[in-house]
Amino acid sequence: MKKIAVFTSGGDSPGMNACIRAVVRTAIYRGSEVYGIYRGYEGMIEGDIKKLQSHSVSNIVQRGGTILKSARSTEFRTPQGRKKAYDMLNAHGIEGLVAIGGDGTFTGAKLFFEEYGIPTVGCPGTIDNDIFGTDYTIGFDTAVNTALEAIDKIRDTAAAHDRVFFVEVMGRDAGFIAVESGIGGGAEFVMVPETKSNLDNIVKSFKNLRKSKSSSIIVVAEGEEEGSAEMVMNKVKEQIKDKDREFKVTTLGHIQRGGNPTARDRVLASRCGMAAVEGLLAGEKNCMAGVMNQQVVYTSFADCIGKTKPLIADHLKLIEILSI
Q: Which residues form the catalytic set?
């Protein structure tokens, strides 16, 4: 395989640049030319493709975001759009792709492979950690640490004023960020989409906690079925009816996507980027390169997209035990 292209798609995540760097330098090390496709599938359709050299990815391993940019492409969802993308890849002589992203990216890559047969290996780039086939995704550790830093600061002011804070973190469909930042931040309660929340039990436990704790932190994943952190706060506040206790909401939002990646994310991204290129050259296709039990594994896009990655049961138990 003489020419390989790499692109990032969907939401950005810290560590994507480290992954791009590993893809570029592994390809060059293995004797292949490597191209960068800018703005994901949209750039593929428009032919925004440039050859990359080793120096093209110098001094980026520590940077958040993605030097290749990212965009969502409505046109790529159509057969006509995918045909345009295929024609552009052919015009550049590109024989294989490395797709860095999450479910949406892999869904597009799977369909593109089925229609045109261009070998593609993915790298799991998403802060949500919700992709089956890897223990952790690129950007997750950084997002957790960003949330944890905010929770630590919120805890200071909560304790100073005897307040209850409801902190909303990202996680529309998965509660991994909420669970790990909740454990690390000493949260009294964590509410996630995967488990059914019983507000009556939370209120009861909260009243008991008041006897021993002057402040509390409740971490709410944005996909929680009871609603946003503000909606949850209003429901709890209505049941407790404590005029002497202040309730506050903090929504962390997109700060969780940015920032310099942690060492853990940089190493994971580098391993996945190298594995993606080496997988392509060894004949892997229509799959993702991930790391499970410290070993590189290749998982089909069908499984990555179709199978649900469960929360760690021990982590949920930890929250219950450590909150007393």
A: 128
